[in-house]
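User: I would dearly like some help making sense of a protein record. This is the protein in question:
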Amino acid sequence: MRGAPFPTPFAKPRGVGNSPPFLNFLWGSFNLFIGIYLLSICPVVIGPNPTCLALVAGALTMGAYLSLHFGKVFRNTQVK
């Protein structure tokens, strides 16, 4: 949406190189639709239940991992 290049699984090298903005848009849209599909087949009721806790734990884990990974990628690209 910002028009900025960003790493996707299709970049070379994977997860480190940048992909063009349109490919980032397609990848983000694909992820959105898969997330909506998964929530439609296994709805999550907000509250202290195993499904909601699994969703929150997964989101926190993925967010922490991706922030560390992309932080390292951006630091390495700015140094060069």
In short: The radius of gyration is 16 Å.
